[in-house]
Structure formats: structure tokens, C-alpha cells
Amino acid sequence: MMHAYRAYQETPSFYKGSNLNGEIEAWYAQYLYTSRLPEYPGSKWEERDNTNPLRRKIRDIAQIVDSKGNLRNDVNLYDLEFKILNEIVPTFHQNGYPADEYPFDYDRQGLENFTNLRTLTVNCL
């Protein structure tokens, strides 16, 4: 659903030029959903999030970005930028998301990668 929403919000060239940015946001939204399921502890989703290198990096975002796409109180934008640029992007590019097919828009900084999440959770608790 995040892919569909994002495609609707952006121009085709902007969307294509930031495929990896969108993947990161979509994977994070999926993690937020599954990790809050009552059956998550001990589930196949938790196992996947703890063992898959891509999923581990996405899970780590929750230490910096909350479930509404905002920074947590005890971190700053540098922490998020560092995590994305030095850990998440390389891990994705090394694990099935090649840079030529999944370009990362380096002009989108920090929280700009979670704008759809922020928009979709505006009136959520």
C-alpha cells in the first residue's frame, strides 16, 4: 500500500529516481505494522526481522524514528542520516537492491524519507 500511495503522490521521474528511498519507507511501515501485532513475539515476522540483514537495518530505524515518522526525543538528524547513508543504503544495495535499479536520492535528507508515513499517520494515536 505504501508503494501505491507514494506512486500517487510523486511524479514518475521523481518516483523512479528515488526507488530506494521509497523501499526504505515501505519496509519501515511494514515493520511498524507487523511488530505491533499481538502475535509478533516469537512469530515468523520477529524471526525474519532478527535474522535478515535488510530487516535488521529497517528494525534499527525504530530507535531513531517513531511510528509517525518523526525523530525520537533522544536523537538528532545526524543520527538518522548516518544510519541511512552508512548502514541502510549499502545493505540494501548489497542484498538484492542494486543501485542501478534502485537509486537513492541523496538530496532527500533524514526525515524527508518518511513524509508519506507522517502524512498517513496525522490523526493516528
Automatic annotation (TrEMBL):
| Taxonomic lineage from the root | Bacteria, Pseudomonadati, Bacteroidota, Bacteroidia, Bacteroidales
The species this protein was found in: Bacteroides cellulosilyticus
**This protein's superkingdom?**
Bacteria
Query: Any idea what this protein is called?
Result: Uncharacterized protein
